[in-house]
C-alpha cells in the first residue's frame, strides 16, 4: 500500500512539474508574441516616416520615388579653356524614375540611388544617364562618343580610361559632338584621343574640387 502511495505521489509530482513547464512555455510564447508585435509595429511606423519623407522631397542626397521634368536650373558658360561650366543649380536627389536632363550627356542633377561603376570601366553599350550622373557626383569623369568618333580614338580613350580610377566610358548616340568629356557641372568637346585637353580635363576633374562627394565609391555599383 505504501508503495502505491509513493507511486501516486511521484506521478502527481511529475504531472505538476509538467504543468509548470507548460505554463512556463506559454509565458515565453506570450512574451515572444508581444516582442514580435512591437518590432512589426515599429517597422511599420518607420516605413511610414520614410514614405512621408520621400513623398515630400528633401535636400541633396535624399531618396524620392518621384520623377523630375528637369533637375537642373541654369545654363552653360564656356570658359577661355573651352570647358563649359554649369552656372545654376544641380539637384542631387535620388530618384527611381527617368530624369529629363538639360544636356546630353548630363553633368548633374537628380539621379538613381545606384551609381554606375566608374573604376576605369569601359562600356560598349549605352548606359543609363541617371546611374552615370551618380558616378559624376562621386567625382568621376565620363567619356562619351557617338558613331562619328574614329575607332582609333575610341580604342585609345578606352585604354586611358581602363588605367584611370574614377573614370568611365560609354557610347552616346544623341550627343552633338563625336567625343565629349563630362564631370559634375563641367563638360567639354575634344577633337581626338591625342588632344592635350583630354589629359588636362582628367587632371582637373577626376576627384576634382567640383566633386560633391569626394572619395565616394566607384565600385560595387551597377555594371552594364
TrEMBL record:
Ranges of compositional bias, category Low complexity: 56-74
Superkingdom per UniProt: Bacteria
UniProt keyword terms in alphabetical order: Membrane, Transmembrane, Transmembrane helix
Biased composition (Polar residues): 1-10
InterPro entries: DUF3105
Keyword DNA-binding (UniProt): no
Pfam families tied to this protein: DUF3105 (PF11303)
Protein name: Membrane protein
Region entry Disordered, spans: 1-21, 56-76
Native source organism of the sequence: Streptomyces viridochromogenes (strain DSM 40736 / JCM 4977 / BCRC 1201 / Tue 494)
Membrane-spanning parts: 31-52
Amino acid at each position: 500500500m505504501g508503495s502505491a502511495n509513493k507511486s501516486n505521489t511521484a506521478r502527481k509530482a511529475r504531472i505538476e512539474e509538467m504543468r509548470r513547464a507548460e505554463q512556463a512555455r506559454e509565458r515565453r510564447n506570450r512574451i515572444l508574441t508581444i516582442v514580435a508585435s512591437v518590432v512589426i509595429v515599429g517597422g511599420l511606423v518607420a516605413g511610414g516616416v520614410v514614405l512621408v519623407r520621400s513623398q515630400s522631397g528633401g535636400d541633396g542626397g535624399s531618396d524620392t520615388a518621384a520623377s523630375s521634368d528637369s533637375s537642373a536650373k541654369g545654363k552653360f558658360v564656356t570658359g577661355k579653356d573651352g570647358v563649359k561650366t554649369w552656372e545654376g543649380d544641380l539637384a542631387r536627389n535620388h530618384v527611381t524614375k527617368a530624369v529629363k536632363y538639360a544636356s546630353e550627356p548630363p553633368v548633374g542633377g537628380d539621379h538613381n540611388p545606384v551609381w554606375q561603376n566608374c573604376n576605369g570601366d569601359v562600356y560598349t553599350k549605352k548606359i543609363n544617364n541617371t546611374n552615370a550622373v551618380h558616378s559624376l557626383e562621386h567625382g568621376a569623369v565620363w567619356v562619351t562618343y557617338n558613331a562619328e568618333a574614329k575607332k582609333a580614338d575610341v580604342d585609345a580613350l578606352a585604354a586611358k580610361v581602363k588605367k584611370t580610377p574614377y573614370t568611365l566610358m560609354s557610347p552616346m548616340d544623341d550627343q552633338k559632338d563625336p567625343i565629349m568629356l563630362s564631370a559634375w557641372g563641367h563638360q567639354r568637346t575634344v577633337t581626338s584621343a591625342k588632344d592635350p585637353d583630354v589629359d588636362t580635363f582628367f587632371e582637373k576633374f577626376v576627384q576634382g574640387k567640383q566633386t560633391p562627394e569626394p572619395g565616394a565609391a566607384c565600385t560595387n555599383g551597377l555594371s552594364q
